[in-house]
Amino acid sequence: MNPKVVTIGLGYIGLPTSALIASHGTNVLGVDINQSVVDTINQGKIHIVEPDLEEIVLKAVSKGFFKASTKPTSADVYLIVVPTPFKGNHEPDISFVEAATNGIIPLLKKGDLYIIESTSPIGTTEKMQELIFASRPELEGEIHIAYCPERVLPGNVMHELVENDRVIGGVDEASTQKAISFYRKYVKGELHSTNARTAEMCKLVENSSRDVQIAFANELSLICDKADINVWELINLANKHPRVNILQPGCGVGGHCIAVDPYFIVSVYPMESKIIGTAREVNNYKSFWCAEKIQNEKLKFKLKHGRKPTIAIMGLAFKPNIDDLRESPAKFIAQKVLQNSNNEEHFIVEPNISEHKVFKLIDYKEAVEKADIIAFLVAHKEFKNLKILKEKVVLDFCGILNKN
Ligand code: SAJ
């Protein structure tokens, strides 16, 4: 196959993006360092959980428009869709973007388009431009380089990839326009042009804004707990105001985006990003607080009943109705509770996963029946309308019993 597009990274974003482009009859070569991922995809199967994706991958692979490999080959468009984690000190780690770029530098030719979609600290696209021209100076002014962040919500990726607006920032106007005409073929949402630095910052700001708003809700939950006010009722009432829209508190903020991206701003601009940094602290603290609450309820139970309680931990995923445990506050809380255990019996529940390496999982109905203390960490649909006996101690950290 002669690919028109090469995507580097076949994860939660790279795979759906590759499949979408290939579904339009464009030859796509998807590249990943993991051989088993490559093999799975070449069999028309997928290694992640995402509604509707497998069907599209199978079709594109069997029609010959989509192929996976561990090595890139020459194409006209290169999309960098690799992870950008942070290091121990919360500084962004762009080594995967660098490695992916180094891998394609020898393949670049006049007229090519190079796009980064990975969440990246400000200035990354310009850095990669320098890297490319340092080893291929003859390409200066001859190729197009742009940044276009992904914005899709896990669980709704195939819809949002097509329908969401995109922000596209080139290192120069010609690059922006070239990237816009590329996305135009696959995206129905509006394409907004800007420069590379603004597009990079835009992605970080979108997720930081959500983090700050969730931190506000989590802060309210801490205040309300002390003030003996039902935070869910309070937020519902406050949101009746036409210009107030408070989000929902939970057991912390997880996932690989919102709990990570704000640090890309805070680590570089610590003096200027006080609210963003504090929001991260509040959301992290909320998980500690939940773990402490469970611990306190255990002690109270023992004092009252003269025996150890049994505890149900309801949910491990980072948000409702998914199987993704990355950066999950619920998983963190479960670990903490088990670490602090005084040989009490714990029932760990995650209806979206059948087996886990560390946690022995049990059925959610059985856990609710057997446990003295039931801690709801994630508002999975299975947990709604559960019959819970009055004598049980219920800790509802995600509002599953309270939502209107
Ligand atoms: N959460 C709350 N309260 C809320 C909403 C969410 O506690 O009211 C928690 C969730 O339980 C979860 C975390 O926040 O732990 C993040 O969940 P999410 O649904 O808000 O977002 P993600 O991480 O699944 O996806 C986000 C999205 N960004 C925004 O909504 C601004 C998505 O559009 C991005 O594409 C994605 O990050 C990404 O890849 O960056």
Descriptive terms for the model:
single chain; 404 residues; alpha/beta; eight-stranded mixed β-sheet; four-stranded parallel β-sheet; 13 helices; 40% helix; binds ligand SAJ
Question: Could you please describe the fold and organization of this structure?
Answer:
The chain contains 13 helices and 12 strands. The protein has 404 residues and is an alpha/beta fold. Strands 3-2-1-4-5-6-7-8 form an 8-stranded mixed β-sheet, with helices on both faces. A 4-stranded parallel β-sheet has the order 10-9-11-12, sandwiched between helices. The chain is elongated, with a radius of gyration of 24 Å. The mean pLDDT is 96. The structure holds ligand SAJ. Ligand SAJ is lined by residues 150-154, 206-207, 210, 214, 247-248, 250, 253-255, 257-258, 318-319.
